[in-house]
Design brief:
The protein has two domains: 165 residues, Rossmann fold; 126 residues, Dehydroquinate synthase-like - alpha domain (Dehydroquinate synthase-like, alpha domain), CATH 1.20.1090.10. The strands form three sheets. The chain has a seven-stranded mixed β-sheet. It has a two-stranded antiparallel sheet with strand order 7-8. The protein is built from eleven helices and eleven strands. Helix 8 crosses helix 11. By secondary structure, the chain is an alpha/beta fold. A hairpin with a 6-residue loop joins strand 1 and strand 2.
Length: 344
């Protein structure tokens, strides 16, 4: 555990640790509340059992959820809550999510809902979960009208980022995490490429922890974590989630740069910097799926949960990222054309 890094999400009496490193799985034992007599582990088939922590002195039940966005639904939440009841979980017990971002989203929402809220600990086994989904307390599931439209803010008691698990991660899942990692370069305007992977993940966690500590429920700067996500969520919906989240975010970052350029907020050199990070540093070269029209994307962007009274974007500027509304349909379409032309 010599390379373990601990970051703190500072939320007063609800503060918690995020431990990043190789061989850090035993930290999960210390994160469960002292009141717990039962632990409900929520995971998926395919998560190696060696990354499921052991817990001494408690009864443990295991609950398997399906893989893929088609299982990220209210029906899955209902099933989990019924299984928690059948396992005898009470308000003092704890849910432990072991897996990627979908697992932490679903298990976190189930924990927030069962008995109106019981503790949850996240053991993140994917890069996406480590730097984004497992940290910050956002939970949620999809409905037909949009991604993550139903959920709750429910902070975990602790997060373990077991980096050994990344060695078994499929290439596409790794790309998903890299898409989210790319956005942090632009949130803090830093080049993270010189850091080791442990330190880079820890730095992303620190950036998110500072933002969440300042704005837990997205009333202000937390919205900056959605950089690239307005188009990304629309792409996921339009393709019935055949494009993975991180791949969509990578495209969304590039689109946001083109839109900011069309609005005179950034110059062409800054657009090129986005391509250098997304395509160059992280190798995330994903074209727009065939058959998707600008009209369809605009409709789906308007359904995004971040929309206020118009399509809402986080856009770059000379002084940093900002939330921008009231953008003309013409600019949105022009930027889509720019993106399609450059991606080829």
């Amino acid at each position: 555990m010599s390379d373990a890094v601990e970051e703190i999400v500072n939320l007063g009496d609800r503060s918690y640790s995020v431990v990043v490193g190789h061989g850090v799985l035993p930290h999960a034992q210390n994160m469960i509340p002292s009141s717990a007599r039962r632990v409900a582990i929520v995971t998926q088939d395919g998560i190696p059992t060696k990354y499921i922590p052991s817990f001494a002195g408690v009864d443990v039940s295991t609950h398997i959820i399906g893989a893929g966005e088609s299982h990220k639904t209210l029906s899955t939440i209902e099933r989990l809550c019924r299984e928690f009841s059948q396992a005898g979980l009470t308000r003092g017990d704890v849910v432990v999510a072991v897996g990627g971002g979908m697992v932490t989203d679903v298990a976190g929402f189930a924990a927030a809902s069962y008995h109106r809220g019981i503790p949850v600990v996240h053991v993140a086994t994917s890069l996406l979960a480590m730097i984004d989904a497992a940290v910050g307390g956002k939970t949620g599931v999809n409905i037909a009208e949009g991604k993550n439209l139903v959920g709750a803010y429910w902070q975990p008691h602790g997060v373990v980022c077991e980096m050994d698990a990344l060695d078994t991660l499929p290439e596409r899942e790794m790309r998903c995490g890299l898409g989210e990692m790319a956005k942090y370069h632009f949130i803090v305007r830093e080049d993270l490429s010189s850091l080791s992977m442990v330190d880079r993940i820890a730095r992303c966690v620190r950036i998110k922890a500072d933002i969440v500590s300042a704005d837990e429920r997205e009333g202000g700067i937390r919205a900056l974590l959605n950089y690239g996500h307005t188009l990304a969520h629309a792409l996921e919906i339009a393709t019935d989630f055949s494009i993975a989240h991180g791949e969509a975010v990578a495209v969304g970052l590039l689109y946001a740069a083109h839109l900011a350029n069309r609005m005179g907020r950034i110059d062409e050199a800054r657009v090129d910097e986005h391509y250098e990070v997304v395509h160059g540093l992280y190798g995330l070269r994903h074209a727009l799926p065939n058959g998707i029209t600008p009209d369809q994307l605009i409709i789906d962007m308007g359904r995004d949960k971040k929309a206020i009274d118009s399509i809402t974007f986080v856009l770059d500027s000379a002084t940093g990222l900002e939330v921008v509304t009231g953008i003309s349909d013409t600019k949105i379409r022009e930027a889509l054309t720019d993106l399609m032309t450059r991606l080829g």
